[in-house]
Structures are given as C-alpha cells and as structure tokens.
Amino acid sequence: MGCTTLQKNNISSSDEIEATYSQGKKIVVVSSPQCGFCQRAFNDFSSTINDFLKSNGVIIAPISRQYEDDEIESVLNWNNQHSLNHLLSYNDTKLKHINLRSTPQFYFFNNGHLVEKIVGWPRDKSNGRAIEKAIKNLNSLK
After folding, report:
1. Which of 114, 122, 80, 74 is nearest to 98 (CA)?
2. Which pLDDT tens digit goes with each residue over 44-96?
3. In CATH, what number is assigned to the domain containing residue 123?
4. How far is CA 120 from CA 1, 41, 106, 117, 125, in A?
5. Can you tell me whether residue 59 is helix, strand or coil?
6. Between the N and C ends of the chain, which has fewer C-beta atoms within 10 Å?
7. Is the pLDDT of residue 6 over 50?
8. CB neighbours (10 Å) of residue 6?
9. pLDDT tens digits, residue range 93-107?
10. How many CA atoms, within 13 angstroms, populate the side-chain half-sphere of residue 86?
11. Is residue 14 part of a domain?
C-alpha cells in the first residue's frame, strides 16, 4: 500500500526540525516505533522523563527512502495511539548535532547548543538514570 501525498507531506525538512530545538531547553529523541530498543525505552521512562518530554521534547523518526511507505505508516499509526508524536524525517537528512542513522538517541539542547548526548537503551535501564541526570543538569542552566 503506497502512502498518500498528504502522508508524505508530514515529512519535516532539516530547517523545520532544527527550529524545534533552537530555543529553550529541549530533549530531542531519535526513535523509531519499529525499533525494539525504542519501544522498551518509552515503556521504561520514569515520570520525570515523560513529563520533560511532554513539555520540552522533540521526537524524530528517521525513515529510509527505500521503505518510506511502510515506515511512514508505522509512525503515523504510533502517533495516533500516543500523546507524544514523532516528526518524520529521512534518515539521510543532515541536522546540526544530530545523527539520524541509529535509534534510540537522546540529545539535550539549551537554546540550540548541544549540552549532552546519550545513545542506546541497555537492558539494565541505566540510560534512564543518565537521562534523568541530564534533565537535571539541563534545568540548572540559564
């Protein structure tokens, strides 16, 4: 089943995405609904992480041009079922400070400046503690 033009219009440009984290304190999550590690991360998030994501989060779903129809459909279905929505972007989009080639990744920005980056979601959930610490550090910045 092919995606409609309207669905493909949901794909964000690099300028649109970069504008979402250029001001204020932001966490940018590179995530895919099809990635088991990402699914586990979202299920394991503490209330601290969820609350910060709701108010200061940007979630980017990198999609490949080769499988875009299936991946767009998967992301749109996820967005329809969750309160935190993914922005769509091609995985070859060039973004300042952000790599869209692997998931999950967590980037912490203060007014567009990268403060910290955390990669992966190990089974021991240790990156949950690292993310909480990064949020605390980010909130302490002016």
Report:
1. 114
2. 999 999 999 999 999 999 988 888 888 888 888 888 888 888 888 988 889 99
3. 3.40.30.10
4. 32, 9, 8, 10, 10
5. strand
6. C
7. no
8. 7
9. 899 999 999 999 999
10. 30
11. no
The answer as to whether 3 is a domain residue is: no
136 part of a folded domain: yes
How far is 71 from 64, CA to CA, in rounded Å? 8
Q: Which residue is listed with tokens 């970069």?
A: 18
Measure the CA–CA gap between 68 and 66, rounded to whole angstroms: 6
Q: Where in the sequence is the domain holding 87, given as residue range(s)?
A: 21-140
In a domain, 107, yes or no: yes
Instruction: Provide the whole-model pTM.
Output: 0.90
Count of domains in the chain? Answer: 1
Number of H helices and number of E strands within the chain? 6, 5
